[in-house]
Specification:
Blueprint lengths: L1 H17 L5 H13 L10 H4 L6 H7 L5 H9 L14 E10 L5 E11 L5 H16 L58 H14 L4 E4 L11 H10 L8 E4 L5 H7 L5 E4 L6 H6 L2 E5 H10 L6 H30 L1
Parallel strand pairs: 1-3, 3-6, 4-5, 4-6
Antiparallel strand pairs: 1-2
Helix pairs in contact: 1-2, 6-7, 8-9
Length: 338
Amino acid sequence: MRETNSSTSCFFFNGLDKLGIAGSSLSLSLMANCTASPSISCFSSSIFHTFPRQNPKPLISAFIPLKPLKTLLLSHTHTRKTSQIIRCNLPTTSTSTLPVLSLDGSKVGEATLSIKTAPPDTSRAVVHRGIITDLNNKRRGTASTLTRGEVRGGGRKPYQQKKTGRARRGSQTTPLRRGGGVIFGPKPKDWTVKINKKEKRLAISTAIASAAVNAVVVEEFGEAFEKPKTKQFIEVMRRWGIDPKEKSMFLVMDRSENVVKSSRNIGTVKMLTPRTLNLFDILNADKLVFTKGAVEYLNEMYGYDYVGEGEEEEEEQEFDEEEEGSEGTEEENSEVAD
């Protein structure tokens, strides 16, 4: 029995040493007392009374000062490198030099197209989101079908349940029969998708910059057409190196009536203005044709230094001032009436 108690006490103090308890002198004194007592039994041992295993927390708290959780987390985070720089993919500027062609097809100069583009990592996603948004917003969402509860008729059972030799039928509007309702048919739905203005502008500018390799700049040709003539317009397109069978998009600042009538019979030509410029026609075209005024407009409105937000704030301030002035006049009128 003495060997068992001594081995138990040694195991207990070895366990305290493993926990990191800094009390070597106390542990040695307790060990000496335990080994010196000649009459230690399993029932009268002081180890089981003074050191109960059910509540070891006072022992640990007496010897090991525990650090708070916040201090431990801070000490762990200080070991990591804190000099890492987070780099964000910001829009960049794409600059392209385009030839300027006259009506006879000769090169008369060059024009620079400098607009904002999305970074290469996100350019496809930005353009994809822009085109999907445009296509969804064009959907009217008015397709509608009638369910079996909306179809006219069907209040009477067509024939009796039994004794006919036919399959049982309870209503004439069942979807299994001709003239009945439609199962899971389309219903009116709003397909509108929201997109931020800056993101939409970035998608358009990115698409134009990517198609700049297939773009040309021409001189103003509105006054060259004295009367509507489709044949003359096709000849001018061929001088500029544009195949009439290929899809082409023209961006002009002002469309004259003769130019519109000369080009509207050509199914592959889209004549756009800054107001009707859209992402679908840019991506769908094989050739882009800009006038000098259109290039200046693109550089100004889709350039990196565009300051349209300040103009919108000024307009909002003017609108607020007008509202305040109208409220003041209404108060004056009410005072005069009183």
